[in-house]
Amino acid sequence: MDNIGKFGENVASKYLKDKGYKIKERNYRTFLGEIDIICEYKGNIIFVEVKTRRSDKFGYPEEAVNFIKQRKIIKNALCYLSKYHLWEKNCCFDVIAISISNHEDIKRIKHIRNAFYLDSK
User: Fold this and answer.
1) What are the two backbone dihedrals, phi and then psi, of residue 120, each rounded to the nearest 5 degrees?
2) How confident is the model at residue 102 (pLDDT cuts 50, 70, 90)?
3) How far does Cα 52 stand from its chain's mean position?
4) 44 Cα distance to chain centroid
5) Phi/psi zone of residue 27: left (φ > 0), alpha (ψ -120 to 50 degrees), beta?
6) What's the N-to-C CA distance of the chain in angstroms?
7) Is pLDDT at 1 greater than 60 in this prediction?
8) Fold of 3-116
9) Backbone phi, then psi, for 41, in 5-degree steps?
10) Fewer CB within a 10 Å sphere, N or C end of the chain?
11) How confident is the model at residue 108 (pLDDT cuts 50, 70, 90)?
């Protein structure tokens, strides 16, 4: 993982903890890819994709979580739910978009709750 990605995930983890989320795992990997953060909040399992950018020149960070990326996250989430037998839990897919300066000063944190759904087509 590059430094900006790791920095963003650290910022997002602290943000979530401060909001009362319990971090279960970071960088959960399967043969299908990775989920940045898996946490629990009010009894729900939340799968979080973190996108961090220094510039909005090519769009906002959250715009990088396209349909293909969403499909990969959902498939990884299904692996996680299966591995830990969590089928009875409600789950959500959030995106945390972070914009920073060249000196890693945080300019914006945008938490998009329910950014996409398990059953989205």
Assistant:
1) -65, 145
2) confident
3) 11
4) 15
5) left
6) 29
7) no
8) Trna Endonuclease; Chain: A, domain 1 (3.40.1350)
9) -150, 120
10) C
11) very high
* Residue among 113, 112, 109 at smallest CA distance from 53: 109
> What whole-number distance in Å separates Cα of residue 35 and Cα of residue 77?
8
97 strand-pairing partners: 51, 110
Q: Which residues of 1-23 are buried (b: 16+ CB within 10 A; e: fewer)?
A: eeeeeebbbebbbebbeeeebeb
Q: What is the pLDDT of residues 43-88, one digit of tens each?
A: 999 999 999 999 888 889 999 999 999 999 999 999 999 999 999 9
Q: How far apart are CA 22 and CA 81, in angstroms?
A: 17
pLDDT at 56: 83
With beta carbons less than 8 A apart as the criterion, state whether 111 and 67 touch. no
pTM, 2 dp? 0.93
Tokens of 15: 């943000």
| Burial class for 61, CB neighbours closer than 10 Å (0-12, 13-18, 19+) | buried
The SS3 of residue 77 is: helix
